[in-house]
């Protein structure tokens, strides 16, 4: 059977585990050639082996996407190995959870650099080729924390509120070139990313739920685009 993303190249950050790996597996099943990226080389190799066992094509790059120099090498390797990048999923993210007045400046820098600056840098690096070809998808994985405040979430929420604003402006800048920019904002997901004390993981969102949302976005008919998806569990965990 023909696959809707057959021949397309997808670059997914933070794809060695959790949400990123689920997204990569989903896009691979749709026929995309995958470029997997995270800071953890060994976990990346394991993820790629899992994906290849399912019949998809995947390369790996261990890179720190907060550094422009490493982003340049990541994009160059992807394009040389697989071809022009059609889909970029900015999924890499970290969290700091605790009262803002107890946080250090280094905590702020680490979260904002990973969750926000990296999206700006990588999207900028990939957008040039997409503009030239007048096509492409950029999908940013945000969070309902970008809309809802909670105690101990000041730095994380700030990064995700900023990401929502960045995404909306990117969409306006790039839509004239046929490039569709979208954001997926899930609630709590059953991964080891952040503490979920007292929550029932069976009632939480699963990584595959976010992967399905991305799949919907990239298979949308070309005359329109889905700008934002909010995901919540059916039952409160």
List its traits.
globular; 43% helix; Rossmann fold; alpha/beta
Describe this structure in words.
The structure is a single chain. The chain has six helices and seven strands. The mean pLDDT is 95. With 237 residues, the protein is an alpha/beta fold. It has one domain (9-231): NAD(P)-binding Rossmann-like Domain (Rossmann fold), CATH 3.40.50. α1 (18-29) packs across α6 and α3 (68-81) runs parallel beside α4. 43% of the residues lie in helices and 16% in strands. It has helices at 18-29, 41-53, 68-81, 105-133, 154-174, 207-218; strands at residues 9-13, 33-38, 58-62, 87-90, 136-141, 179-186, 228-231. It has a seven-stranded parallel beta sheet with strand order 3-2-1-4-5-6-7, sandwiched between helices. It is globular, with a radius of gyration of 17 Å. The protein starts with 8 loop residues before the first strand and ends in a 6-residue tail after the last strand.
Largest sheet: 7 strands, parallel
CATH classification, class level: Alpha Beta
Identify the overall geometry: globular
What portion of residues belong to β-strands? Answer: 15-25%
How would you summarize the topology of this molecule?
Layout: E1 9-13, H1 18-29, E2 33-38, H2 41-53, E3 58-62, H3 68-81, E4 87-90, H4 105-133, E5 136-141, H5 154-174, E6 179-186, H6 207-218, E7 228-231
Parallel strand pairs: 1-2, 1-4, 2-3, 4-5, 5-6, 6-7
Helix pairs in contact: 1-6, 3-4, 4-5
